[in-house]
């Protein structure tokens, strides 16, 4: 067994599934909550995901690069995974993180004007990065199992 490929699959699978699960199963439910409750839950999720995902998403890129350099399986698939993970991190830093910082400062009882539009923008890019992470994971799986 290749330990690097195993760790890469475990980490990228955890990160991709966590983010995609949040996008596909958690946030659609949150959209139906009243504003105060929704913002309160969003702020709680920011604390939980905000502790783990910066490290996890960075590790996805680093581990995929290591697998691609090592040449396990089909190298071009590993490099494609690197691109998917890196673009996901790029969207995260450029779009989602600034919105997360703003959301963390909101008073749930008195949210700023346009807060729903801001959250819709976050959700759109959450979808983009979630799909990219899932695609990256599938590519790493394909690269590591050849």
TrEMBL record:
The chain crosses the membrane at residues 48-69, 76-99, 128-145. This is DUF1772 domain-containing protein. It comes from the Bacteria. Keywords: Membrane, Transmembrane, Transmembrane helix. It comes from Streptosporangium subroseum.
């Amino acid at each position: 067994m290749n330990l690097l490929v195993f760790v890469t699959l475990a980490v990228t699978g955890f990160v991709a599934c966590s983010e995609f699960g949040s996008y596909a199963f958690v946030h659609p439910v949150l959209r139906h909550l009243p504003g105060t409750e929704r913002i309160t839950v969003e702020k709680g999720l920011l604390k939980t995901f905000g502790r783990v995902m910066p490290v996890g998403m960075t590790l996805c890129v680093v581990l995929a690069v290591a697998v691609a350099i090592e040449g396990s399986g089909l190298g071009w698939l590993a490099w494609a995974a690197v691109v998917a993970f890196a673009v996901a991190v790029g969207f995260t830093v450029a779009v989602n993180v600034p919105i997360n910082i703003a959301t963390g400062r909101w008073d749930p009882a008195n949210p700023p004007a346009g807060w729903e539009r801001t959250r819709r923008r976050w959700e759109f890019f959450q979808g983009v990065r979630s799909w990219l992470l899932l695609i990256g994971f599938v590519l790493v799986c394909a690269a590591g199992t050849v």
